[in-house]
Amino acid sequence: MRYILLRPATMADSGFLLRVRNDYETRSMSRNMDVIGEADHIKWFTTTTDLVYIAETMGERIGYIRFIHHPHETELSFAIAPEHRGKQYAASMLTAALKLPCSIQKPLVAYVREENRKSWRAFLRADWKHAGEYHRYEAPQQDGGGTESMVGGSPRDSERSGTPLEWPGAY
Predict the structure, then answer these.
(1) Are 138 and 131 in contact (CB under 8 A)?
(2) Where are the beta strands (DSSP E) in 37-126?
(3) 14-22 vs 38-47: helix axis angle to the nearest 10?
(4) CA quadruple 120, 90, 169, 52: dihedral sign
(5) Tell me, what's the pLDDT at 130?
(6) Confidence of residue 101 (pLDDT cuts 50, 70, 90)
(7) Which helix (H) or strand (E) element contains residue 97?
(8) How far lies 88's CA from each of 4, 43, 57, 143, 168, in Å?
(9) Of 49, 18, 48, 50, the residue nearest 34 (C-alpha)
(10) What is the mean pLDDT of residues 37-65?
(11) Burial of residue 64 (number of CB atoms within 10 Å: 0-12, 13-18, 19+)
(12) Exposed, middle or buried, 7 (CB in 10 Å: 0-12/13-18/19+)?
């Protein structure tokens, strides 16, 4: 298991989020495959009701987790920065996300594009259950944690250390 710290995204993370979101591979696995402009991104970032967290390991940003609230469910979306893909971070990020204190009262789900086999494997490694429709995954039942969530060690360790897995719509 990788040491992952999740912390709330701040305006200082805005450029990182946009870079990862606009990466070709991220877009190719998203419902909205368009490149998002900086002005639209800033407008979205400063007005969204989504919960956005930055994933870090060893003090370096590696990706993000986003919770999108819908009337009957909360959708989890995530992406890993291109330079950190293939390092087995995804399942640890998903596990850490379940420990966040988001007060989610609705089912937590994720939707994965059929061709996104890497995400399929990550959700299954993190004990999410395939729900049978359009590659829908449901989170295992867990209690929330603190304002930051870390998997694989203590907070001190972290200091050393369509699918709708995207940003749907044009913000």
Answers:
(1) yes
(2) 51-57, 60-69, 74-80, 108-111
(3) 120
(4) positive
(5) 82
(6) confident
(7) helix 90-97
(8) 11, 32, 12, 24, 25
(9) 18
(10) 93
(11) buried
(12) middle
For 147, residues 6+ apart whose C-beta sits below 8 A from its C-beta are 7, 8, 101
Give the CA distances from residue 21 to residues 1, 75, 87, 164, in Å, rounded to whole numbers and listed in that order: 25, 17, 19, 12
Which amino acid belongs to residue 133? Answer: E
Of 63-67, 107-111, 157-161, the range with the lowest mean pLDDT is 157-161
Structure tokens at 99: 């420990």
Please state, in angstroms and rounded to a whole number, the distance separating the CA atoms of residues 94 and 88: 11
Amino acid in the structure at residue 81: A
The packing angle between helices 117-125 and 90-97, to 10°, is 50
- Give the largest Cα separation in the chain, rounded: 40
The pTM (predicted TM-score) of the whole model is: 0.78
Dist CA 114 CA 29 (whole Å): 9
Q: Which token pair is 163?
A: 């699918």
- For residues 135 and 120, give the distance between their C-alpha atoms in angstroms, rounded to a whole number: 8
| pLDDT-based confidence at residue 92 (cuts at 50, 70, 90) | very high
Residue 74: beta bridge partners?
69, 108
